[in-house]
């Protein structure tokens, strides 16, 4: 009988399993025996010896203490001896009781009768010993008789003690013999088990060898060749190599090799067809080998789907081109007639129509008038106008539905060309609806019936035409309203001029009448005959006066109306001022109310993400990361709203400085290049400006970050370009543009996207999220800088945002209405000559003479120098150039040096730079506690300055080393060394089992690249944990052959946020991250030394901190964060309770919330500073109000420092450690 491969293997496996089962059963039996012998020793001999050892030790203690009883000594010493005696007595009694009850694994400790007899011998001796000792202890007197009696009892006690010790020693010796016996028995059983195991193993191997030989011969026959040959051919097939030369034995049709040959020939045929498909040949289908040929059926189905997809793409492109052509042609300031002619002509040509007409709906006349046509021949005004319901055009207008007709008679209007006159076969009449309102009708006629594609185009294009037509009518309406408004204005001006002329004439007439009245009075007596004339003139004068009084009343009424309008305007202005005040108060309160819960969310989620003892793992840690990121996003949104409000309230200051276009491009490239690459976009920076200009670095950077972030977010494919150029002929010569190939912005949305909380797509189903604040803030900032932002965009083609800025500082200051502190003429420093790797020292001092002296000295010593005359300029230079050290003067023109030091040590990007104080003020130890490494008082010599700079360089020293590569086969040391070149120093390759502490001590590597390879992710996590334990400051990069799943990714991100997956761009990403880490590691190490809040550090061990806050959430998170670092926390819910606590205890630090009931933080801080006992107690305020005036008020009240909510976890711990350390010193 010929057995199959499966049956042969089953027979072999069955024999192996039987032998293994027999061996396992024997091993189980023998192991049980060995365990029984060893267990006897574990549960009896070992506990017995332990109890007897305790018994002997305590008895020996009793003997020793009994000999120390001295009745002549003081009572205190005697009481201590008696206490030790009583404790030892209890221990001996407990040991005897445990031995005979449950001392050995819960049972009695008797191994046999001899063991029991030994204990029985000890018990009466012990009772005798107790009786004598009790008598000794009862002798309380100090008389000679009592002392003598006690000595006599002690002499009686010695032989009993010796006997008891002898019995205990014999008991211990016997238990040792018992333990040895148990061990010997277990050893004999173990030797027997080994011998039997070896015999059975030998027999089992012999049987398996015989069956294996038989099985191998059977398998080779069914393979038709050597297995290695079959494996080689299969490997080539797996690699796609179908060219295989298989030699078969004569008549071999059923072996595996024969079947493989048939398979390769079939795959060769399918591969040729697939290649043709890839070249675009979809004309032929694959010939199926059988009805079960799934691969052939699948390829034929793929050909069918590709044909359908190609047809669908052609249809979509045709429709898209048609829409774009119409949209481009109709964009602009066109009249309705121009728009109608252009639209019907384009549509008629695109659809190959024979004729087309365009009707405008007149709502007032309920009539449709012809305003545009295509190849239309007028016939006695037939078709020039239609009423609702009249003809197909009127019926379509009434029903708001299209009508498609097939013409079968000669009544239709013919289509006329230069060579023919023919009747159309089909007509297509469609309504133009804008927001369900009729604006017009179009009709096309054709010789052929429109297919589905043309009908879809015609159906969709009508909506676009309606929108353009509506917009054109609105433009006409707006022009009419504007003209009417201008005409009304001209008439009002004319009436006003006439009124002024009438007033002037009436005044002149009144003067003439008064003069005439005087003349008449003088000549009254002499001219009686003129009396009648005088009466007549008097009557005329009265009539004129009445008219003047009426005009005067009209003027007074107009004046009253103007006064009333003025009062209303003033009332509205007061209401606006009041509303602005309420808005400011609302923003301050909302800042507190929003930041308070955010403080809990961000701090707790940060603690969960960085869980040290593994309390949060896997999916929960991923959730915590999502919560933390969401909290940070909400905080950024709150800051945007506050920025916008500060701009609108005029409380946003502008700090002008000189900017380099090169530095600006370098900053933005490092910030956005990887974001664009991750989305598959090209990020292009074109610096045509290549010069310095004056602006506010922070605000300009925020403008460009907003624009670039939007460009990348709204671009699916293509590129994002940032271009800088100079246009000297314009009022704003600096042009910064951000252009993308994204979705674009329609004309009707261009005017609203710069308004707060507005977006181009504000619907609930929009694809892109956001608040609509970024562009609003950007435009406000640009206006504050004296410039503006323009927008050029076409839907579907992309957008270009252009920032225009002034070039000079004067224009920027005038636009911002600022008077910044004057900048002093400083010596020309080395900022333009800085090269990568240069050691630059920054001097922040307004003394140009001192700056020149330092510049000369540093050039002699080989250092580069940066000079800043103000604190603001110093902070800007520190941010931009990252010097190796800073020399800081305290007396600066724009801000105090202590404030500059605070900014340097609280900004994350600057905290690692060492600062040395050089000032004419007296030495202040508080500055050293705040982070300065030294203090030098002016005037200072060259030697003292050189020593200070040397100390700065030593503070950043020890940062050498290179890159460590943990190799697992994915990426190696040579690849990394070739990639980074000399950027990261030496590259060291090691395996995953190295001695990490010793290796890091010797190599001083700053960065480790961990290759995940094919090993489980848990192994790489273990390596990361070991590296981080050996050096908490080392940076980690994970390199993976494929993307890890969510759980593995969460485990890796607990140690590093840099996980590089092997892709065509992986090398570039790895190089960028290596450079980033090597650039940031020195700052991280310095920050770690200054205030390390890293995992495992307990910076606040033994420190006492009082937290004052009325919010239980804040109390919880702050307490939890600080207790993890060893602090002892106390709490109070308001300022009054805090003062009561301070009356009882004095902590090392007080963390004080500002907004609290009964007594707020301001009142509490003032009360603390008013008490001389607490005048030096460190107080750090915690405030949720983010407005600038809050900081000055807090520090003026008496707080030593402050933190803004939501409080960063690391900053909280570092700040607490800083002030506790300062108090400790």
Describe the structure.
It holds the Pfam family GAF_2. The modification 4-aspartylphosphate is found at residues 889, 1153. One of its GO terms (molecular function) is phosphorelay sensor kinase activity. There is one protein chain. With 1225 residues, the protein is an alpha/beta fold. It is built from 31 helices and 30 strands. It folds into 8 domains: 5-220, Up-down Bundle (Four Helix Bundle (Hemerythrin (Met), subunit A)), CATH 1.20.120; 230-278, no CATH class; 332-487, 2-Layer Sandwich (Beta-Lactamase), CATH 3.30.450.40; 497-522 and 530-594; 654-810, Histidine kinase-like ATPase, C-terminal domain (Heat Shock Protein 90, 2-Layer Sandwich), CATH 3.30.565; 831-955, Rossmann fold; 963-1090, Response regulator (Rossmann fold, 3-Layer(aba) Sandwich); 1095-1224, Rossmann fold. Helix content is 57%, strand content 13%. The chain has a 6-stranded antiparallel beta sheet. It has a 5-stranded mixed beta sheet with strand order 10-12-13-15-14, with helices on one face. The longest helix is centred in the first third of the chain and has 80 residues, at 144-223. The model is unreliable at 756-771, 815-825 and 1079-1096 (pLDDT under 50).
Q: How are the strands ordered across the major sheet?
A: 3-2-1-8-7-4
Number of helices: 31
- In CATH, the architecture of the largest domain is Up-down Bundle
What are the low-pLDDT stretches, counting only 5+ consecutive residues below 50?
Answer: 756-771, 815-825, 1079-1096
Query: Share of helix among residues?
Result: 55-70%
Quote the average pLDDT: 77
| Quaternary structure annotation | single chain
Rg, nearest Å: 49 Å
> Which percent band covers the strand fraction?
5-15%
Modified residues (4-aspartylphosphate): 889, 1153
Subcellular location: Membrane
Catalytic activity: ATP + protein L-histidine = ADP + protein N-phospho-L-histidine
Region (Disordered): 485-521, 543-577
């Amino acid at each position: 009988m010929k057995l199959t491969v499966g049956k042969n293997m089953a027979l072999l496996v069955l024999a192996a399993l039987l032998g293994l089962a027999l061996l396992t059963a024997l091993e189980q039996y023998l192991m049980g025996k060995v365990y029984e012998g060893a267990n006897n020793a574990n549960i009896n001999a070992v506990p017995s010896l332990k109890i007897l050892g305790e018994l002997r030790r305590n008895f020996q203690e009793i003997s020793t203490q009994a000999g120390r009883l001295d009745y002549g000594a003081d009572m205190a010493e005697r009481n201590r001896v008696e206490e030790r005696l009583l404790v030892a007595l209890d221990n001996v009694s407990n040991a005897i009781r445990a031995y005979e009850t449950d001392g050995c694994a819960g049972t009695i400790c008797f191994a046999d009768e001899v063991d029991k007899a030994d204990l029985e011998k000890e018990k009466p001796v012990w009772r005798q010993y107790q009786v004598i000792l009790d008598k000794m202890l009862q002798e309380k007197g100090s008389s000679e008789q009592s002392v003598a009696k006690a000595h006599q009892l002690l002499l009686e006690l010695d032989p009993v003690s010796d006997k008891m010790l002898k019995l205990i020693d014999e008991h211990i010796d016997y238990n040792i013999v018992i333990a040895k016996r148990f061990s010997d028995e277990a050893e004999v059983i173990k030797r027997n088990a080994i011998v039997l195991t070896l015999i059975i193993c030998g027999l089992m191997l012999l049987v398996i060898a015989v069956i294996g030989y038989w099985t191998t011969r059977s398998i080779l026959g069914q393979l038709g060749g050597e297995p290695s040959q079959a494996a080689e051919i299969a490997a080539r097939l797996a690699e796609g190599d179908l060219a295989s030369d298989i030699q078969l034995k004569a008549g071999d049709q059923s072996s595996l090799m024969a079947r493989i040959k048939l398979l390769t020939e079939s795959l060769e045929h399918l591969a040729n067809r697939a290649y043709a498909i890839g070249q675009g040949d979809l004309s032929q289908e694959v010939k199926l080998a059988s009805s079960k040929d799934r691969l052939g059926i699948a390829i034929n189905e793929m050909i069918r789907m590709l044909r359908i997809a190609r047809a669908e793409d052609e249809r979509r492109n045709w429709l898209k081109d048609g829409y774009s052509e119409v949209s481009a042609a109709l964009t602009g300031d066109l009249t309705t007639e121009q728009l109608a002619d252009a639209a019907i002509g384009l549509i008629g040509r695109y659809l190959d129509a024979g004729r087309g007409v365009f009707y405008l709906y007149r709502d007032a006349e309920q009539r449709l008038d012809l305003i545009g046509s295509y190849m239309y021949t007028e016939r006695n005004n037939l078709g020039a106008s239609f009423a609702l319901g009249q003809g197909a055009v009127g019926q379509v207008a009434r029903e708001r539905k299209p009508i498609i007709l097939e013409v079968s008679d000669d009544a239709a209007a013919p289509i006329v060309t230069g060579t023919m006159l023919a009747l159309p076969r089909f007509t297509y009449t469609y309504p133009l609806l804008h927001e369900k309102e009729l604006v017009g009708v179009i009709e096309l006629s054709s010789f052929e019936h429109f297919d589905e594609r043309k009908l879809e185009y015609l159906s969709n294009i009508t909506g676009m035409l309606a929108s353009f037509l509506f917009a054109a009518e609105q433009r006409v309406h707006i022009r009419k309203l504007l003209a009417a408004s201008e005409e009304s204005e001209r008439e009002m001006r004319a009436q006003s001029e006439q009124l002024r002329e009438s007033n002037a004439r009436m005044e002149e007439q009144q003067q003439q009448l008064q003069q005439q009245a005087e003349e008449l009075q003088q000549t009254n007596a002499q001219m009686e005959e003129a009396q009648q004339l005088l009466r007549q003139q008097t009557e005329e004068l009265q009539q004129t006066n009445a008219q003047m009084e009426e005009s005067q009343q009209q003027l007074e009424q107009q004046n009253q109306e103007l006064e009333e309008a003025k009062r209303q305007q003033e009332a509205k202005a007061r209401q606006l001022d009041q509303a602005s005040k309420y808005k400011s108060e609302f923003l301050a309160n909302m800042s507190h109310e929003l930041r308070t819960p955010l403080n809990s969310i961000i701090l707790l989620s940060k603690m969960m993400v960085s869980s040290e003892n593994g309390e949060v793992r896997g999916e929960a840690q991923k959730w915590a990361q999502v919560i933390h990121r969401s909290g940070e996003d909400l905080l950024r949104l709150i800051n945007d709203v506050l920025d916008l409000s500060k701009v609108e309230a005029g409380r946003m200051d502008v700090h002008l400085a000189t900017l380099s276009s090169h530095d600006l491009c370098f900053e933005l490239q490092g910030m956005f290049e990887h974001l664009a690459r991750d989305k598959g976009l090209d990020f292009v920076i074109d610096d045509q400006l290549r010069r310095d200009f004056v602006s506010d670095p922070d605000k300009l950077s925020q403008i460009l970050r907003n624009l670039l972030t939007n460009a990348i977010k709204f671009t699916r494919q293509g590129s994002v370009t940032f271009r800088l150029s100079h246009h000297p002929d314009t009022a704003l010569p600096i042009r910064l543009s951000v252009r993308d190939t994204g979705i674009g912005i329609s004309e009707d949305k261009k005017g609203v996207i710069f308004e707060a909380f507005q977006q181009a797509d504000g619907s609930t189903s929009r694809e892109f999220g956001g608040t609509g604040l970024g562009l609003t803030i950007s435009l406000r900032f640009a206006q504050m800088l004296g410039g503006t932002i323009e927008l050029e965009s076409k839907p579907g083609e992309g957008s270009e945002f252009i920032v225009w800025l002034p070039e000079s500082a004067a224009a920027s200051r005038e636009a911002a209405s600022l008077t910044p502190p004057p900048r002093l003429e400083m010596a020309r420093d080395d900022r333009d000559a800085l090269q990568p790797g240069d050691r630059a020292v920054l001097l922040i001092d307004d003394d140009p003479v001192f700056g020149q002296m330092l510049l000369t000295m540093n050039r002699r010593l080989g250092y580069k120098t940066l000079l800043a005359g103000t604190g603001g300029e110093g902070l800007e230079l520190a941010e931009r150039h990252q010097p190796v050290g800073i020399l800081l003067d305290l007396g600066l023109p724009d801000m105090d040096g202590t404030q500059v030091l605070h900014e340097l040590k609280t900004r994350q990007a600057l905290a690692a730079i060492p600062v040395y104080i050089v000032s004419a003020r007296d030495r202040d130890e508080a500055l050293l506690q705040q982070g300065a490494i030294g203090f030098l008082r002016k005037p200072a010599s060259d030697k003292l300055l050189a020593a200070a700079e040397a100390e700065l360089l030593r503070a950043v020293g020890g940062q050498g080393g290179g890159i460590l590569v943990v190799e697992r086969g994915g990426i190696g040391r040579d690849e990394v060394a070739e990639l980074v070149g000399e950027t990261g120093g030496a590259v060291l390759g090691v395996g995953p089992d190295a001695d990490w502490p010793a290796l890091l001590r010797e190599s001083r590597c700053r960065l480790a690249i961990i290759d995940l390879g094919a090993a489980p992710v848990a192994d790489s996590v273990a390596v990361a944990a070991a590296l981080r334990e050996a050096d908490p400051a080392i940076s980690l990069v994970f390199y993976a052959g494929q993307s890890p799943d969510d759980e593995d990714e969460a485990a890796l991100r607990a140690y590093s946020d840099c996980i590089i997956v092997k892709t065509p761009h992986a090398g570039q990403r790895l190089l960028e991250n290596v450079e980033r880490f090597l650039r940031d590691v020195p700052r991280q190490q310095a920050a770690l030394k200054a205030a390390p809040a890293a995992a495992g550090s307990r910076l606040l061990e033994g420190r006492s901190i009082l937290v004052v806050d009325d919010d239980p959430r804040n109390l919880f998170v702050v307490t939890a964060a600080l207790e993890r670092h060893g602090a002892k926390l106390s709490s109070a819910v308001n300022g009054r309770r805090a003062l009561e606590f301070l009356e009882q205890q004095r902590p090392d630090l007080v963390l004080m919330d500002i907004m609290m009931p009964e007594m707020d933080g301001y009142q509490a801080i003032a009360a603390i500073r008013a008490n001389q006992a607490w005048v030096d107690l460190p107080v750090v305020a915690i405030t949720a109000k983010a407005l600038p005036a809050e900081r000055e008020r807090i520090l003026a009240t008496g707080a030593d420092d402050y933190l803004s909510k939501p409080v960063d976890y690391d900053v909280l711990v570092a700040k607490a450690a800083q002030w506790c350390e300062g108090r400790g010193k």
